[in-house]
Amino acid sequence: MMASNGRSHHSAGHRGWPGLPYPPYPLYGSFGMEAFSTQSFHNFQQALPLIPGQHPAANGSSTPSPAAMEMQSTSSEEHSPSSASPPLPPRIYKPCFVCQDKSSGYHYGVSSCEGCKGFFRRSIQKNMVYTCHRDKKCVVNKITRNRCQYCRLQRCLEVGMSKESVRNDRSKKKKDVPRVELVELPPAPPELEDLTSRVCRAHQETFPNLCQLGKYTMTNGSGQRVTLDADLWDKFSDLSTKCIVRTVEFAKRIPGFSTLAIDDQITLLKAACLDILILRICTRYTPEHDTMTFSDGLTLNRTQMHNAGFGPLTDLVFAFASQLIPLGMDDTEAGLLSAICLITGDRPELEDPSKVDRLQEPLLEALKFYVRKRRPSKPHMFPKILMKITDLRGISAKGSERVITLKMEIPGSMPPLIQEMLENSDGPEALTSTSGGSCTTTGQPNVSTTQPAATASQPATTVGLESSPTAVAP
């Protein structure tokens, strides 16, 4: 039929009329090809003007000249849907203007790779402020682009990436987001409210908020990554020991934890201690300066954290900290998530995993109620927060391996509490208290079976740690 878009579509039944070339231009009208007989189409064709260079044929049809045939051939290739056109060659972009990696297209005004596109978008959308720890002339290429965020952002701006394009792109996406119907949640049961309050208080009293700390840093040491900085390690190991003590104190304050069998308390503490320590330090991440702050206010940048003992674990921890920022967790959520990390029934060697699971259930419910109440328009935030436990476990597994390799790098012996709590072991026996009843950095663990039995409210790992949290330096 003759389509109204001006292109000629011939059915199989009308193909191959002898001596009748296709019309030199489209036929317009509301009629269809079916209304024409062969003779009527022939008469209509005769009435059409000739293409320059075309001559009438002897049989009444027109015979095109070579030039006209070329024009018609070109026209039929353009208009016939059945003509096969050669495939277009793949589009080749210039290398990324920022780091010279393979470009994925033009983003925000320049040819760039996916990595630099995403980095620039995040930096502008979050109004990131970076700091160069050298002379602001760092080389930015495929290998070094992640080393200095300040110089990478400056390079993005130098090559012409547009901040306005990022803002416009963000506003367009916001317009496309469908409105979420706000559903009024029923109030949490009083017992969940009480549990939430107690866990939050336990978290805050054993882990000061970042805004409560007076930050300070250590200016000595290498500005580049080294295997280990002895001065930083001494400070870091001392702080780590105190952080472990506070983690034990936090565990004792979680409702129901002290009712578990002593061996199960030890197993859970040992399995989750590194999870909680990493989660806590990552909530004190300052993205503007790429630093983390310890409980006494010591603030270290990425290089210093590496040299203090984190080593190959450094970038994993900083990446996890960056992932927490969009979640916007407060103290209550961090405390509940820490408690859920601790009280989980899938740890090996538990005597009564079902009891542990029963203790975890109200913690999960409390976190769900609190997250949904705080973010009624974001129903998927609760599972997102909960899934961070999987990431924590992956980092902790590598952290336990790091403790083993660290023993070969440090100048002296590993502080016993760090080794016992953070290094993988075959059982809970290594976590019994010292003969004096307190956990110290010098006393050797006493595994004698003649030690007086601890009560259910006084786990073997925490005998002698009944003092208030303020008695232990953060």
TrEMBL record:
Pfam families in the record: Hormone_recep, zf-C4
Compartments (UniProt record): Nucleus
NR LBD domain ranges (all copies): 191-425
Region Disordered, residue ranges: 52-87, 426-474
SUPFAM superfamilies in the record: Glucocorticoid receptor-like (DNA-binding domain), Nuclear receptor ligand-binding domain
Record's compositionally biased regions (Polar residues): 464-474
Residues annotated as domain Nuclear receptor: 93-168
Claim: DNA-binding is one of the keywords in the record: yes
Gene Ontology biological process: cellular response to corticotropin-releasing hormone stimulus; retinoic acid receptor signaling pathway
PROSITE patterns recorded: NR_LBD, NUCLEAR_REC_DBD_1, NUCLEAR_REC_DBD_2
Main location: nucleus
Keyword Glycoprotein: no
GO MF, one example: nuclear receptor activity
Feature: compositional bias, Low complexity: 432-462
Entry-linked InterPro entries: NHR-like_dom_sf, NR_DBD_RAR, NR_LBD_RAR, Nucl_hrmn_rcpt_lig-bd, Nuclear_hrmn_rcpt, Retinoic_acid_rcpt, Znf_hrmn_rcpt, Znf_NHR/GATA
Keywords: DNA-binding, Metal-binding, Nucleus, Receptor, Transcription, Transcription regulation, Zinc, Zinc-finger
GO cellular component annotations of the record: nucleus; transcription regulator complex
Similarity section: Belongs to the nuclear hormone receptor family. NR1 subfamily.
PANTHER family named in the record: NUCLEAR HORMONE RECEPTOR (PTHR24085), PTHR24085:SF9
Protein name: Retinoic acid receptor alpha
